């Protein structure tokens, strides 16, 4: 533990400072602080899940530009699956299923057929926008609201418990578990070692007996389930509605978050929370009439922040060595 803290000293110090400032604001104005922090977490949940999709894909050597399309189609399938079937469970399964199918499509076209990964992702996004716009029908309603629970014990913790574990839905809880689970998996398990190997040195991994093609196919496909959950959360939990183009670039924001987080799940989650907090703070300042700007301008804040983040991260973080490169087994 001490060695880990020493290696990540700056991140630990920054995290402690941010946490202390958050508690100071919490105790000075509990109502406003909780409102802001809960809004930030709600905004961050789909970003966290989508960033994890990107982390798994790029750690495996596959660029997933199609996260935006996966998110949008999953939101569409989840909402209308629940609306037409009258079952929230059917909606959730529909959204997750679409995420898996699109993840499998991207994996197969880029890994097996060696299609250009950027083009494959762009095509997926365009098709997703067209399909969801064409089949969209207004006036549909969910059969019920997504259930929310308070976790006994954890929900009573000041600030942290009240934001993350009080009145929270199952997908938000899954996002928390996924962050820690995938981080542990990537850096403490055989699966993680092999995943990082096929993303850094696929030829060496192949020589060591790892099936690079199969592992990339499986990783990218299964990561699609997280994009599916993000879409379901977006349409069935945070808004309880679906609108054309409601993903609103979150898939691309998630890629920026992934880069800012240096392809590490914990750092990516922290970056997503930062994005959420900045958005929540801007909305709160506007509501309090501290700043008098059009809401459309506030809505552009995450995208402006994306440019700033990418500019800051440029040259300071290193992508996996073989990301974006199709693997061709020697002798074939």
Automatic annotation (TrEMBL):
According to its UniProt record, where is this protein mainly located?
membrane
Please tell me whether the keyword Transferase is annotated for this protein: no
List the GO cellular component terms: plasma membrane
Q: How does it sit in the membrane?
A: Multi-pass membrane protein
Q: Where does it localize?
A: Cell membrane
What is the top-level taxon of the source organism? Bacteria
Q: Name one GO molecular function term.
A: transmembrane transporter activity
Q: Transmembrane stretches, by residue range? A: 12-28, 40-57, 69-86, 92-111, 118-136, 163-186, 217-235, 247-263, 268-285, 297-315
Q: Keywords in alphabetical order, please.
A: Cell membrane, Membrane, Transmembrane, Transmembrane helix
Q: Look up keyword Transferase and say if it applies.
A: no
Give the coiled coil ranges: none
* Name recorded for this polypeptide: ABC transporter, permease protein
What organism is the protein native to?
Answer: Phycicoccus elongatus Lp2
Upper lineage ranks? Bacteria, Bacillati, Actinomycetota, Actinomycetes, Micrococcales
């Amino acid at each position: 533990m001490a060695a880990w803290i020493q290696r990540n000293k700056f991140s630990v110090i920054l995290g402690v400072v941010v946490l202390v400032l958050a508690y100071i604001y919490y105790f000075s104005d509990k109502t406003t602080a909780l409102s802001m922090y809960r809004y930030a977490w709600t905004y961050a949940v789909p970003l966290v899940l989508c960033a994890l999709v990107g982390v798994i894909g790029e750690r495996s050597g596959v660029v997933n530009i199609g996260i935006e399309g996966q998110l949008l189609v999953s939101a569409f399938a989840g909402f209308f699956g629940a609306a037409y079937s009258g079952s929230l469970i059917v909606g959730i399964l529909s959204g997750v299923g679409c995420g898996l199918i699109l993840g499998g499509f991207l994996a197969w076209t880029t890994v097996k057929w060696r299609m250009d990964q950027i083009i494959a992702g762009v095509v997926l996004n365009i098709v997703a926008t067209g399909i969801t716009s064409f089949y969209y029908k207004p006036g549909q309603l969910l059969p019920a609201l997504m259930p929310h629970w308070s976790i006994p014990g954890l929900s009573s913790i000041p600030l942290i418990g009240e934001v993350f574990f009080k009145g929270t839905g199952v997908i938000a809880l899954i996002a928390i578990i996924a962050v820690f689970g995938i981080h542990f998996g990537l850096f403490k398990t055989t699966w993680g070692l092999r995943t990082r190997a096929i993303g850094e040195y696929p030829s060496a991994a192949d020589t060591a007996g790892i099936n690079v093609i199969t592992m990339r196919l499986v990783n990218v496909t299964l990561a699609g389930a997280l994009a599916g959950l993000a879409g379901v959360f977006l349409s069935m939990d945070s808004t309880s509605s679906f609108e054309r183009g409601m993903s609103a670039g979150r898939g691309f924001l998630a890629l920026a978050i992934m880069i800012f987080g240096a392809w590490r799940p914990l750092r990516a989650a922290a970056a997503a929370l930062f994005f959420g907090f900045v958005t929540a703070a801007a909305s709160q300042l506007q509501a309090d009439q501290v700043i008098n700007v059009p809401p459309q301008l506030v809505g552009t804040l995450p995208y402006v922040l994306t440019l700033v983040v990418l500019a800051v991260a440029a040259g300071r973080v290193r992508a996996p060595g073989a990301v974006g490169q199709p693997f061709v087994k020697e002798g074939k």
